[in-house]
C-alpha cells in the first residue's frame, strides 16, 4: 500500500505525461484527463494509435514527448504498462502513477526494484485535490473503513 506522503509527492508535480488516453470520449481516461487539466495539471497525452484526441496532440511514446515531464500517469492496458514504465525510467521519470486497472505485477516490481515513486492500486480521482462529487463521498467511505493510505 502506498503512503499518503508518496501520493502527495506525486500530486505535487504538475507537468505529467498521460499514457493511455482513449479515443473514446466517454472513457474513464478521458474523464480523468479533463479533470486533471481543470485542476491545473499540464498534461502530455500519449496514445500510439492517435495523432490527436479531443483536439490535443498525442505522442506515441515517452521518447516523443516535446519536453521533459515530472511524472507519468498510466491508463494503459496492463499488458503495456511494464513497457511504458521502463521507457519512463530510461527518460529519467521517477514519479509514476499506475491507475487502478492498469497495474501489472512486473511493472510494479520494476518500479520498486528501480527506486521509482510508484503509486498503484489507487484512483487518482480520490486524491487529486479538490476532490469533488461522488469521488469525495467515495473517499470519505474509504477513510471510515481504513482504506485510505496513511
Strand order of the largest sheet: 2-1-5-6-7
Q: Count the DSSP helices.
A: 5
The CATH level-2 architecture is identified as: 3-Layer(aba) Sandwich
Tell me the structural class. alpha/beta
CATH superfamily: NAD(P)-binding Rossmann-like Domain
Give the C-alpha Rg. 15 Å
- How much of the sequence lies in strands comes to 15-25%
Give the class-level CATH name: Alpha Beta
How would you sum up this structure, described in words?
There is one protein chain. It contains 5 helices and 7 strands. With 150 residues, the chain is α/β, with parallel strands linked by helices. The chain has one domain (4-144): Rossmann fold. The strands form 2 sheets. A 5-stranded parallel sheet has the order 2-1-5-6-7, sandwiched between helices. Strand 6, helix 4 (105-113) and strand 7 (117-120) form a beta-alpha-beta unit. Helix 3 runs parallel beside helix 4 (105-113). The longest helix has 13 residues, at 78-90.
At a glance:
The chain has 150 residues and is of the alpha/beta class.
Label this structure with key terms.
150 residues, alpha/beta, Rossmann fold, five-stranded parallel sheet, two-stranded antiparallel sheet, 5 helices
Per-chain topology:
Layout: H1 4-11, E1 15-19, H2 28-38, E2 42-46, E3 52-53, E4 56-57, E5 71-74, H3 78-90, E6 95-98, H4 105-113, E7 117-120, H5 133-144
Parallel strand pairs: 1-2, 1-5, 5-6, 6-7
Antiparallel strand pairs: 3-4
Amino acid at each position: 500500500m502506498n503512503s499518503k506522503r508518496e501520493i502527495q509527492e506525486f500530486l505535487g508535480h504538475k507537468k505529467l505525461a498521460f499514457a493511455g488516453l482513449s479515443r473514446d470520449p466517454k472513457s474513464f481516461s478521458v474523464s480523468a484527463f479533463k479533470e486533471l487539466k481543470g485542476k491545473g495539471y499540464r498534461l502530455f497525452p500519449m496514445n500510439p494509435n492517435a495523432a490527436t484526441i479531443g483536439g490535443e496532440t498525442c505522442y506515441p511514446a515517452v521518447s516523443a514527448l516535446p519536453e521533459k515531464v515530472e511524472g507519468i500517469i498510466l491508463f494503459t492496458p496492463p499488458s503495456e504498462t511494464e513497457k511504458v514504465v521502463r521507457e519512463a525510467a530510461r527518460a529519467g521519470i521517477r514519479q509514476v502513477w499506475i491507475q487502478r486497472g492498469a497495474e501489472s505485477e512486473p511493472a510494479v516490481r520494476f518500479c520498486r526494484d528501480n527506486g521509482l515513486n510508484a503509486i498503484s492500486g489507487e484512483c487518482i480521482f480520490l486524491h487529486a485535490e479538490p476532490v469533488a462529487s461522488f469521488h469525495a463521498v467515495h473517499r470519505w467511505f474509504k477513510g471510515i473503513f481504513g482504506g485510505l493510505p496513511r
